[in-house]
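Example 3.2
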Amino acid sequence: MFSFLKDADVPLDQNPKLKIHAKSVLVMTCEAAVQLRKAGKVVVRDSTLKKLGATHLKYGVVDEHFEVTKYALWETIKEAAPEIWSVDMKNAWGEAFDQLVSAIKTEMK
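Structure, written as tokens:
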């Protein structure tokens, strides 16, 4: 799915472009979590959403891809903060991610 990985000669965990993408997913999910806590809903700027929707549609992203990404997000956070990881934390991050994905999927239609 990621064109920058096709001919990459470095391991995935060292690929700078993949790290940038992963960081943007984490930052957007953090922003979604903050919005959920403060306002009870996730609001993404229309221009950002339209771009995300168009990009994900262009590359053929489907539900399964979002689920894999959510799992990777959970595992990353769990590994980074094992002492505070809990079912409640997993559910909260999952809800924030799901709300963000829902907004992206709306723009993919």
